[in-house]
Amino acid sequence: MIDVGDDNRIRLLEGGDEYYPALTAEIDQARESIYFETYIFYDDSTGKEVSSALKRAAGRGVKVHLLLDGVGSIGLSEDWMSEMRAAGVHLAFFKPINYPALFRKSSIIRLHRKIVVLDAKRVFLGGINVSDDQRTINGKPGRLDYAVETEGPLVAQVAASAEWLWKRTLRRAGRRTRLRPVLDGTLNFIFRDNIFHRNAIDNVYLRAIDEAKSDILIANAYFFPGRRLTLAIFRAAARGVRVRLLLQGRVEYFLLHHASRRLYDRYLREGVEIFEYETAYNHAKVAVIDGYWSTVGSSNLDPFSLLMNLEANIVIRNAEFALQLRRSLERVIAVRCTAITLDSHGRRFILTRALSWACYQLVRFVRAFIIVRDLE
Question: Of 43, 65, 112, 302, which residue is the catalytic one?
Fold first, then answer.
């Protein structure tokens, strides 16, 4: 682990191949409590590995709280849920979808955070769900993704947030004491929650980009930033900052994929470098700025993450950690990415360009709807 100051330590975990062994090992060491929240939890080989560790923990008396999103983890069977509860795991779903709920505005808000708090002493946080496609299986690489493991005083903030969200989901939460992270610390917990921190992650990115002096490297799976972030990136490029975007090359979500490619022309003309990851799916939500500031978390730079979902990132101000993350991203760019240029992007078929335009307009409409809903 890297000592980042203020008695906090942090370790970068690259993909599921590093994340799951570290996570299950620490679950097996837990003695008092576990708060585990994630968007996707599949009952595949990875899910069985993690769920077995959680059941073992519950069996030795650990209070295990497993909070899953009602949409992302909707495929779990009744048998699986019964087995987890019979083993002593406290299981709940955030906003489960049923027929009446489909017509509620609140149903579009999803739990997208990926947080595990162990004994209120150690935290895992990032973008990695619980599924086989996040790790290498039979030689097939998993999604490009990152998480961190951390210990120290910051854990208390994350633990308080996880415990409150658990109680809120069960409608047992009283009035919360507002968490006030020290945004200029060496390690900060930043989250979006539709209550006190609607623009927290957006604002942290804006500040870091506006203060950038030499280099910005952002890896994002689903990229469709709002006007403020877009203009901040353009201002940075205009003052000579090198701006690189590592984006999704494969089509996973049709609408957002083609809509984001509509942005490429303007970004490229403003001097931004774009690289598409095509080896597998890109699921990263990380950034490194000026070799000192970095962030790892669950939040994409799209309308859903920035305006709607519950998200969580950790911001790190440490040169050693930033160098490690930047080197990882630059290895990916050098070996597994295709550079997008104005020339190559302009040679797309006219129907492809028309499709991007149509998807772009539709996503803009959806984004406007989310903003209006958020203000009601």
Answer: 112
